[in-house]
Amino acid sequence: MQRFEPNLRIPGPTALPSAVREAGARQMINHRGPEFGALFGRIESRLKGYFGTQNDIILLTAAGTGALEAAIVNTLSPSDRVLAVTIGAFGDRFAKIATAYGAEVTKLAVDWGQAAEPALLREALGRDHGYQAILLTHNETSTGVTNPIPELAAVAHELAPDALLLVDGISGLGAVPFAQDAWDLDVVVSGSQKSWMAAPGMSFVSVSERAWTAAETARMPRFYFDLAQHRPGIAAGSTPWTPAVAVLFQLDAALELMEQEGAEAIFARHAACAAATRAGLTALGFELFADQRYASNTVTAVKVPEGLDWKGLNAELKKRRLVLAGGQGKLQGLIFRVGHLGSVTLDEILGAVGVIEEALVAVGRPVSPGVGVAAAQRAALDVLAAGSSGTGSSGEVARA
Ligand SMILES: Cc1ncc(COP(=O)(O)O)c(C=O)c1O
C-alpha cells in the first residue's frame, strides 16, 4: 500500500509533528500584547539551552540566510578583513554575504566532504592573523559534515584573539550538543525549519557582549537586520517589526515537545538515526561522501555510484513517497542527501532505507532486500546501547 504522507527526508524543512501543525493554525493574537510576550519568553529561554548560552536570543522573522546577513552587517565595517572557513555551499554563501557588504574576504576553502581541521586554521592564522572576523559553519548541510567547532574556536582564540567568531549553526543546533558560551563564540545563528520542527520563517541569533560592543562601531548598512533595534524589546518579549506569529506558535509547541523528550534523548535519537542511515546505505553498496570522522548527525550525503542514474532511482523513490534531497552546486547529480533531523524517528529511517532497497531493486541493481534495513537497525541499537549523544561537544574549550 502507498504511504499517504510523504516521508520527507530532506535536510529541512522537516516534517512537522501534528501538535506543531495544529499550533500553527491558531487564531492570531496581538503581537504587542502580554500573551505574545509570554510566548516570546518561553521560546527564547528554551532556545538558550540548546545554544549553550546566557546571551539573549534574537528572534528574527527571516530565513537562515537573513540571520547570517545579520551576523555580518551588525559586527563589521566595509573593508574589514574576514577569514571565511568554508567546507561547502553554505560556507561559500556566508563568504558571499560578507563580500556583498564590502568586507575583504579571504577564503580558507576545504575540499567538499572534509571538515576544517584545526591544524589548517592554525596554519592560516600563523600566516596572517589580522582578521576582524572568522566565519565558521557548524554543520555543512551540502556535504553532511560537522566541523569541530570547539577545537577551531580554541585555535582562533589563541592566534587571532581579536577576531570575532561568527558561526552558522543553522542545521546542527537542537540536534547535537552545542556550547556557545563555553566555546566563546560571538554570534551563532539557527533557523526554525531545521532541528526545531517548525515551518520555515524564523531564525535565531545569539550575540555575545563582545559582538554587541563591535556593533556599536560597525558601519555596514543595515535597517531590517539591525539587531540593536531588537535588543531593547527582548526583556518584554517584543520584536521591532511584525513577527511570523504562526511560526512562533509552532515553535512554542515544538520546544514543548523537545522539553518533554529532553535534550540528551534528542541528541541520542539523532545519533541513532544518523548511524542507521549511514550503516543502511553502506550495506546497500553506497559510498558515503563525508569524511566519516566528521559525519553529520543531521544529514547524510551519499555518492551516486558509477552507472546508477540518480533521476531514475529518484523517480522510483518518489513513487513510494520517499523524498530525498539531491546534491547542491557542483555536487548536483553526484550525491544525494538524506535528512535525519528534527521530527525523525528510527522507524522512519528504517522505512526510508527499506524504500531505497525496493527502488534499487526496481531499477535493476543487485540488492538483497532486507540487507540495508538489518544493518541500519543494528547500528542504531549499538549507538543507543553505547549511550552516545553525538558530535560537537567536547565541552570546555574557553578563550585562552
Ligand atoms: C548550514 C546552512 N546554512 C544556511 C542555510 C540557509 O538557510 P535558509 O535556506 O533558511 O536561508 C541552510 C539551509 O539549508 C543551511 O543548512
Spatial order of strands in the largest sheet? 2-10-9-8-5-3-4
Q: Specify the structural class.
A: alpha/beta
Number of strands: 14
CATH class of the largest domain: Alpha Beta
The CATH topology of the largest domain, please? Aspartate Aminotransferase, domain 2
Estimated helix fraction: 40-55%
Number of helices: 13
Number of structural units classed as domains: 2
Span between termini = 59 Å
- What would CATH call the architecture of the largest domain? 3-Layer(aba) Sandwich
Percent strand equals 5-15%
The major β-sheet equals: 7 strands, mixed
SSE layout and pairing:
Elements: E1 7-8, H1 18-24, H2 34-51, E2 57-61, H3 64-73, E3 81-86, H4 89-100, E4 104-109, H5 118-127, E5 133-137, E6 139-140, E7 145-146, H6 149-159, E8 164-168, H7 180-183, E9 187-191, E10 202-207, H8 209-217, H9 245-261, H10 263-283, E11 299-303, H11 310-319, E12 322-323, E13 325-326, E14 335-339, H12 346-362, H13 371-386
The structure holds pyridoxal-5'-phosphate.
Pyridoxal-5'-phosphate is lined by residues 12, 63-65, 90, 137, 139, 141, 168, 170-171, 191.
What does this structure look like?
This protein has 400 residues and is an alpha/beta fold. The protein has two domains: 7-14 and 263-386, Aspartate Aminotransferase, domain 1; 18-258, Type I PLP-dependent aspartate aminotransferase-like (Major domain) (Aspartate Aminotransferase, domain 2, 3-Layer(aba) Sandwich), CATH 3.40.640. The protein is 40% helix and 14% strand. The protein is built from 13 helices and 14 strands. It has helices at 18-24, 34-51, 64-73, 89-100, 118-127, 149-159, 180-183, 209-217, 245-261, 263-283, 310-319, 346-362, 371-386, and strands at residues 7-8, 57-61, 81-86, 104-109, 133-137, 139-140, 145-146, 164-168, 187-191, 202-207, 299-303, 322-323, 325-326, 335-339. The strands form four sheets. It has a seven-stranded mixed β-sheet with strand order 2-10-9-8-5-3-4, with helices on both faces. It has a three-stranded antiparallel β-sheet with strand order 11-14-13, with helices on one face. β6 (139-140) and β7 (145-146) form a beta hairpin. The radius of gyration is 21 Å and the shape is globular. The N and C termini lie far apart (59 Å). Residues 392-400 have low confidence and may be disordered. Bound molecules: pyridoxal-5'-phosphate.
